[in-house]
Amino acid sequence: MKPLRHLLPLLLFAIAAPIPASTPADPMSEGDKASRSSAARTDIKPVLFVLTSHGTKGSTGEATGYYLSEVTHPLAELQDAGIAVEFASIQGGEPPVDGLDLKDAVNARYWNDATFRDAMRHTRRLGDVDAARYSAIFFAGGHGAMWDFPTSPDVPRVTQAIYEAGGVVGAVCHGPAALVNVRLADGSYLVAGRNLSAFTDSEERAVRLDTVVPFLLATTLTRRGAVHHPAPDWTAKVVVDGRLVTGQNPQSAAAVGAAIRDQLLAKPTSQ
């Protein structure tokens, strides 16, 4: 991955459907409590951040995991607006991290924060979460997502439940790998006919992993019927199509978080 650049995203907007919001009734883990803003909006359900548990780049043996800035930058946008965030990963526990760049001020803000680190050590297993708790689900990127997001049976189950309850679905960079096998109740792919952004085939070739990843993300999403909107390599790009919010690369992460935030703040705050 290349360093983050502060570039304005190009946004493609569509009409969003209402999202019911209410205060969650079931108790939270200590890690979940740690992720809340001190001025949390109790009228908006939390956003569920999902992280990869896969730690190697295929047969190369090179380490990977979730890409830190693709968690911290959207997290800052939501928490600074008082919207609570809870964390899950495919296997639960502490997921592997990649992109540990502490020259990035937002990364440093969170990585040096004991409550954030505790939350990362104690992520919920995605299969154990109650989808009804959440107003949105967000899939962070990192190359590890290419291996365990598409193969997890919990990803389509939880994503479908949140989306069909009126929630927002978000993903950035390799995070949209979670969407390649998500179907709605009518059997159609969630991404079919929808505008989106994701890590491009060109960017995959640029990092010389196009023959390492199990599939090319943008190509596969297009085959599922998505309308993929690429920007030049390493340029911020965010596409909002109804309640689907996607971004191309690490440069897009903050704007994806901001777009999710704006949708949630615009929703009615009662069931």
Describe what you observe in this structure:
The protein is α/β, with parallel strands linked by helices. It has one domain (30-265): Rossmann fold, CATH 3.40.50. The protein has nine helices and eleven strands. It has helices spanning 30-34, 69-79, 105-111, 114-121, 145-148, 154-164, 201-206, 217-223, 253-265; strands at residues 47-51, 66-67, 85-89, 97-98, 124-125, 136-139, 168-172, 195-196, 227-228, 238-241, 244-247. It has a seven-stranded mixed β-sheet. Helix 2 (69-79) packs parallel to helix 9. The longest helix has 13 residues, at 253-265. The chain is globular, with a radius of gyration of 17 Å. The N and C termini lie far apart (41 Å).
In short, what is this structure?
With 271 residues, this protein is an alpha/beta fold.
Compile the SSE list and pairings:
Elements: H1 30-34, E1 47-51, E2 66-67, H2 69-79, E3 85-89, E4 97-98, H3 105-111, H4 114-121, E5 124-125, E6 136-139, H5 145-148, H6 154-164, E7 168-172, E8 195-196, H7 201-206, H8 217-223, E9 227-228, E10 238-241, E11 244-247, H9 253-265
Parallel strand pairs: 1-3, 1-6, 2-4, 3-5, 6-7, 7-11, 8-9
Antiparallel strand pairs: 10-11
Helix pairs in contact: 2-9
